Amino acid sequence: MPPPASPPPAGGTPRRPADETPDLAEIRLQKLRQIEALGLDPWGQRFDNTRPIGDIRQLPAENFDDAKPGPKVRAAGRVVRYRTGGKLLFLEIWDQTGRVQLMIRVNKVTPQEWQVAQLLDLGDLIGVDGEFGKTKTGELTIQVETLTFLTKSLEPHPKDVFGMGDIEFRLRHRYLDMIYTPDTLRRAHQRVKIIRTIRTHLDAQGYMEVETPTLHAIAGGAAARPFETHHNALDIDLFVRIALELPLKRLLVGGLEKVYELGRVFRNEGISPRHNPEFTMLELYQAYGDYRSMMDLTEGLIVACVDALGSGRTIPFGEKTVNFEPPFQRAKYADLFLEHVGCDMADEVAVRAAARAENIELEMAPTKGAPKVAKAHVVLVQELFEDLVEEKLVGPVFVHDYPAPLCPLTKRKRETPAIAERFELYVHGMELANAYTELNDPITQEQTFTQQLAGMSEEDSMAKMDHDFIRALRHGMPPAGGLGIGIDRLVMLLTNTQTIRDVILFPLLRSEAK
Hints:
alpha+beta, CATH 2.40.50.140, ligase
């Protein structure tokens, strides 16, 4: 895929469509009618065999005044500069690979094409055939021999990039943002490359990509608030999935021994620089593996994505850098807790004292008139870890061996049942991946679900037992390792982007003010 193009050159100040005067829109509409009056379709027809502008610019270019003609080319793009000079017009057109100057002479095109050239506006789409070369000033240029009108833009386009600094405007007009903000287009290209690399890497290792349902009768696989909907024909309430996990594990039971899905997941929760209610997850499961297998796979997968972007293995992230040269650091949860909190995570008295020192509430808020109750020890441990440890994890670092109560779907260590075989991958305090040695014991899984559901409100995502999943486990799921990676956060990190909204083409926004 060619690299994203630079933005069009500066001109004036962009204005939002609502701010444009009716006269400007009317002028463009009048030009549309004039193009129709010439017998042309202002919305264009098929225009095959064009070359990307970026490729055209790599061709050998002779001066137009030389006797040797340049190569014949065909290009299509959006008009981003327009300059008239009597019987000579200079335009620039842009596509996702670059921009190039056009030179239109009155004696080189037909009278109708010359008329069309006079009717062009910034933002219009045209196609051209002509000779590629250089002007006297050395500007790479297509000398137009045939001009084809492809689409009329009825709304004025920004004339420069400065107004695109309004984030709200950019997000609501992502189509303009991609044209006039080069970083947005660059990230879009890089995201595609990252996802393609993930698929290629997993396919090469024998994983099979599948699709599982988006609508679930029970919201499971994570602790999150789901979006709810209703199926009219069956008259049943359904949930939009909050995770990919449980259907994929059913496929392990069915004999798909290496399986993955790249899918959209929906959680009815808050919005922040690292959270969007709709996001993309990679989940995969490998029969006869464990969380150590997943560490090796995760490391290789992320390094492959870094290498695919071609900027080396030490890359910037804000004012920091990240070195992805393997092997990644591996550290136990308990060791990090002791180092940064200053006490053993098993010491309940010391943990409560540390929580009190950090102004962490020790009691749960009452519900429905019930008295407050003390937070469970493991809840305080996790809150302290989030507050005092995560921000210090430079990484990439695999944090492994979590307290078992935090991991209801995870196999415990045989020698230490209080510890679950789980890891999370952190880079500069941001969680990128989560992996388990999967719990495949249906008896323990049902007990764990029962304990977890005790006292939960009906609104909680996992407030209902997924009996069908337990039944699937009872038919025998092989021991397995499982992995989840948040694709949007991975793209943020690898493209040096500080907010998730800039790596999702259409993030969720509030309703537009009228």
